[in-house]
Every structure is written in C-alpha cells, then in structure tokens.
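Objective 1b of the project was to move from sequence-level analysis to a structural picture of ligand recognition. The entry below was assembled by the postdoctoral researcher (A.K.) and checked by the PI before modelling. It contains the amino acid sequence of the target and the SMILES of the bound compound, coenzyme A.
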Amino acid sequence: MLACAAELTLTPADCATSSVQVAVEGDEIAGVVQVAIEGDEADLTKLFIAPSTMRNGAGRRLFDWAAHTARQNGAKWLRIEADPGAAGFYRRMGAIDDGVTPSGSIPGRFLPRLKYRL
Ligand SMILES: CC(C)(COP(=O)(O)OP(=O)(O)OC[C@H]1O[C@@H](n2cnc3c(N)ncnc32)[C@H](O)[C@@H]1OP(=O)(O)O)[C@@H](O)C(=O)NCCC(=O)NCCS
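Corresponding predicted holo structure:
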C-alpha cells in the first residue's frame, strides 16, 4: 500500500473535479469512494473500506452511491481498475471482466479491469 500512497491520496483538487462520498460509523470515517464522470463513461477511481468495517455492507453502499451518481450525470458505463483482492467484490456487484491494466504505482504489475453497466 505504501508504494501506492501517492496514487491513492485524495486531494482538494480531486474533490473539485470528481464526486466523493464517505461512509461513517459512529464518529469515524469507515470508507471512501470517488467517481470521475466524463461523457457517457465514469471511472471508479477510489473505493476503500477501513479493515475494521469490511464485510459489513459499507462497500456495497458506497458502490451503489457511485453508480447512482454516475447514472444521474449521464454515464452509461462505470469503469473499474481493481485491486486483485477486490475484483470478486465488483463481480458480486454485477461488474464484468474487461481485461487487465498496468498498475499506476508498481511497474510490471497488472490490475484486473472491470466494467459495470449503469
Ligand atoms: C473491496 C471492498 C471495497 C469491499 O467492501 P466491503 O464493505 O468489505 O464489502 P460489503 O460488505 O459491502 O460486501 C458486499 C458483498 O460483496 C462480497 N465481498 C466483499 N468483499 C469481497 C471480496 N474481496 N471478494 C469477493 N466478494 C466480496 C460480500 O461477501 C458481500 O456479498 P453478499 O452480497 O453475498 O452479502 C473492501 O473490502 C476494501 O476496501 N478492500 C481493500 C481495499 C481495496 O482493495 N479496494 C479496492 C481498490 S480498487
């Protein structure tokens, strides 16, 4: 994860140019999602749930929010570059496999690419 820190950091500029939502548990932020919409395609650029909150439904809620937001803004497909361990989650959400893509952080590493019909 350290090697990916820069790529995964959310900046004020990200919040100005894309849609961001958090999941809250008590007083804590339990997860975050970011979706960037361009024309009829949208990119799920971030979706992370805190380890202590995983498998509690927060990932599904944030994914549904991102899909709804993209759909409302005219997108037809949501594109996802997944961590290999998270690809099963996206398939569970209804996404289909769409090849692989080079990691932006680790040279030589490839990530599963998926797409979700909105
Ligand atoms: C992947 C992730 C977003 C899922 O969020 P979550 O809150 O744990 O998932 P949910 O509890 O909402 O799970 C929804 C469904 O997906 C399933 N699921 C969750 N994680 C899964 C996984 N890694 N593989 C396969 N299925 C998974 C759940 O069992 C549940 O199934 P159900 O419909 O039968 O109940 C979260 O575990 C995470 O942040 N992982 C680490 C970071 C990461 O890899 N992020 C993705 C970067 S692209």
